[in-house]
Amino acid sequence: MDERVRFVGRLLEGEKMAVICREFGISRKTGYKIFNRYKELGLDGLNDQTRRPLRYANQLPFQLESRILAIKKEYPSWGAPKIRAKLIREYPQVRTPAKSTVHAVLDRNGLVKKRKRRRYRAEGTRLKDVKQPNALWCADYKGEFKLANKRYCYPLTITDYRSRYLLACDGLDSTKEDYAFTVSERTFRDFGLPSAIRTDNGIPFSSRTAFFGLSKLSVWWLRLGIRIERIKPGNPQQNGRHERMHLTLKQEATKPASFNFLQQQERFDNFIDIYNNDRPHQALNMKYFDGRKINLSRVFAGQDIGIREVSDK
Hints:
Helix content: 40-55%
CATH architecture of the largest domain: 2-Layer Sandwich
CATH topology of the largest domain: Nucleotidyltransferase, domain 5
Number of strands: 6
Number of helices: 11
Strand content: 5-15%
Order of helices and strands: HHHHHHEEEEHEHEHHH
Largest sheet: 6 strands, mixed
CATH class of the largest domain: Alpha Beta
Shape: elongated
Mean pLDDT: 85
Structural class: alpha/beta
Number of domains: 3
Distance between the termini: 63 Å
Low-confidence stretches: 302-313
């Protein structure tokens, strides 16, 4: 508005229209339009004007809109499809609006009840206390930590529930399911398929937007014949044996963190060897692991059966 006031002020002082328009970078047609608006409306004519069109080519006639609202008032439970069908029956000679237009009229007048979208709420499944090795595995990501090169490491760990045998510990750069697929398949080849796997409700084990929270990884496990167990949200003690292993892992293999992933993975590999072969376990009455006594199933170990045949790739 300030530019227009200066423009009109110079015209009132007697300066030529062409010269002023040239300085302001506008055409004389625009200049006369601004000046005439000032002469008609005064200073209010120099304010920004609405750009709303005077009429809409496809605007719904107010009579038809009033009838839509009247039908809705008469039949509160009717939606746009039924109201449109009644309009067609009452006014066959009138061009009937689309269902979306009828819905827009109702919505604009606050006559549409917004349905709350039901979101999946994670819940725990029934948990079993198995007595045999390889009947239940536990999988989880230990909390991420920063390496010396400023990159974050996400260790994915898998243990056998009954024997507490550490099956896998891989340092990954994210929790993407592609990496979890790779670790799972390698572990299946080395130790066979468990009867069930227990996890929490986080990514990539679960998905908040999928049916029953089933992620691609959990669907793949189900297709392999593996039962899924999930702990209740906010109850890590339901996977307490695995979390206790994470504490030992944190104390012995992550402090201080290594410089890069290769060096950190070497520490994880050494930890697996020590944890499984040299470290006595208090929960096992200070006994050592013995691979022959643990008797992990190797039915599918090293075979393609049940692995690639059901792969999504």
